[in-house]
Design a protein that fits this description.
The protein is of the alpha/beta class and 310 residues long. Helix content is 22%, strand content 26%.
Length: 310
């Protein structure tokens, strides 16, 4: 692996003695480009807002892997969310909206597209819209009938066709995002990590089906009927189970929330956020950017400040 370090607009090139492999033409911010000697396809680890252009085309940028939170903290949002600009001075580094279009989201956050299901209109233009992104998430809660609703075998087949081919040039693709349910759903399909475990067992061929990371969603007791302590225990147990199921793969928790009033949610976050930051979880996002949860009147509220450090 050769490393080209770009700092303050001045490139420093390391090579193997055979000459410079890549010469940047534009540098904004600071980044490190990793070049696979067997592939010659560059990828980059860049600070938020950094853009790098190389002689052979644009380089996919990523968020930093260092710092107190390691670039873990993200935002879940949709078309009803207020402007994410209100989080511009926060600890947020990445965003997702359950689709493959960032909308009017600020470009200085890393956007991660999601292929919600294997059906139209979700698959329309997927090949085009998925390009240029370092990470791709797949199939939203296939273990829930009202969501993607996909038996494991169907999901594996769709993943091989729609997701695995995107795994080139440093792009990483994620296994479908499962719920925190257990047992079987109404259609007899396994739920939660049970579904995920079967998927990973069937998607384990380096030539046809690989998941670089796994995704899990968690929600607390409906109506906030459990104590905060009980929800903390439940959440940590679910995350640990997901980490175990991942079997060494990276773990993302791109959707989680404790139900109930803001005070209870704040107490919950004050415990689980530092725990997540010190855990094996790579990225996570609290549900969600909307007035009444992380914002009020379109601005970051007290709970949002607790979560995002805004």
């Amino acid at each position: 692996m050769l490393v080209l370090t770009l700092k303050d607009g001045t490139p420093t090139v390391l090579n193997d003695g055979n000459g410079i492999l890549i010469q940047p033409t534009t540098v904004v911010g600071q980044s490190t480009i990793n070049i696979d000697e067997d592939d010659d396809t560059p990828t980059a680890i860049a600070t938020r807002g950094a853009t790098t252009t190389a002689a052979n085309g644009p380089i996919i940028t990523d968020i930093p892997s260092t710092g107190t939170r390691g670039g873990k903290r993200g935002l879940a949002y949709n078309e009803s969310s207020p402007s994410l600009e209100t989080f511009a001075s926060s600890d947020i580094t990445w965003i997702h909206d359950w689709s493959f279009s960032p909308g009017n989201a600020p470009s200085d956050f890393m956007f991660v597209p999601t292929l919600w299901s294997d059906e139209s209109p979700h698959t329309d233009n997927w090949d085009t819209l998925a390009s240029g992104h370092r990470y791709l998430m797949s199939f939203n809660e296939p273990d829930i009938i009202s969501q993607a609703n996909m038996p494991v075998g169907d999901a594996v087949s769709a993943y091989k066709e729609l997701m695995f081919p995107k795994r080139t040039g440093g792009v990483q693709v994620g296994a479908p995002s499962v719920s925190s349910g257990s047992g079987l759903n109404e259609a007899g399909i396994p739920m939660g990590t049970g579904w995920l475990r079967q998927f990973l067992e069937q998607c384990d061929n380096p030539n046809t089906c690989v998941a670089d990371f796994v995704c899990g969603h968690w929600y607390g007791c409906p109506g906030g009927t459990c104590t905060v302590a009980a929800d903390i225990t439940s959440f940590q147990s679910y995350v640990n189970d997901t980490i175990s199921t991942a079997a060494g793969r990276d773990v993302w928790i791109p959707e989680f929330q404790r139900y109930g009033d803001a005070a209870g949610q704040k107490e919950f976050l004050e415990v689980v956020l530092p725990w997540l930051d010190s855990s094996a979880v790579v990225r996570y996002a609290y549900y969600m950017v909307v007035d009444g949860i992380l914002t009020t009147g379109g601005q970051v509220n007290d709970l949002g400040t607790t979560y995002a450090g805004a």
